[in-house]
Design a protein that fits this description.
about 220 residues, mainly alpha, two-stranded antiparallel ribbon, 2 strands
Length: about 220
């Protein structure tokens, strides 16, 4: 009974987080918020990120209270390979930061400029990592969670997070198509979404041509 209770609490907590996060990130909700409280829009992105991090605490608490039974442990050469994948993913994440406008991502730019727009301010660019996969941060996160040892609860969390990345990336790309139009649709056709595929990779020249001919 305790295990079943823990499983349902984990599912409920994570699904609630994903729903709230997706709702707050949606263009429809931001447009409604901007009409109702336009003077607060410069704070929106900053508040969104702060709330997203704060609401992670209940998820961590639930996983701490209900850790589940050990299910899988990497051993031998597989242990070293799994740890190497985790380290490479972390390094890849930090490498990717240099290609993002972090002030726009965190919301400090919008606050500084008193920007009330509901649209993202960053122009469409294709970084070296985005030539291989459209969502490198999601890809690195997936590598990390599936390269770790996991319990029954951690496996459940991995499945929930993977499902959310699939659904969340689809929702996010609907916004990106609205923001960037046809050029992003062409980009979608040429580059894989969550996991790099050898036949869907852009060369540096192809990425440059796509950007230059976006209009």
């Amino acid at each position: 009974m305790l295990i079943q209770t823990g499983f349902w609490l984990v599912i409920g907590a994570f699904v609630a987080y994903f729903v709230l996060h997706s709702l707050a990130a949606s263009l429809t909700f931001k447009q409604w918020f901007a009409k109702r409280w336009p003077e607060l829009m410069p704070y929106y992105r900053l508040a969104f990120n702060a709330l997203a991090m704060l609401l992670l605490l209940p998820l961590l608490l639930v996983m701490f209270v209900y850790p589940g039974e050990p299910l899988w442990q990497w051993q031998g050469i597989a242990w070293y390979l799994s740890r190497a994948l985790i380290v490479l993913s972390i390094l890849g994440f930090f490498y990717s930061l240099k290609f993002y406008d972090l002030s726009e991502f965190w919301g400090t730019r919008q606050l500084k400029e008193c920007n009330t727009s509901v649209h993202d301010q960053e122009c469409f660019q294709i970084s070296p990592l985005h030539r291989y996969v459209r969502h490198p941060w999601y890809f690195f996160a997936l590598v990390i969670i599936w390269s770790r040892d996991f319990s029954t609860v951690q496996l459940l969390v991995n499945v929930l997070v993977t499902a959310y990345f699939i659904i969340g990336s689809w929702l996010e790309e609907k916004k990106l198509c609205t923001y960037h139009g046809e050029v992003y649709q062409r980009y979608q056709q040429q580059v894989a979404g969550l996991v790099p595929l050898p036949w869907k990779i852009l060369s540096a020249e192809q990425a440059r041509d796509l950007i230059e001919n976006k209009n």
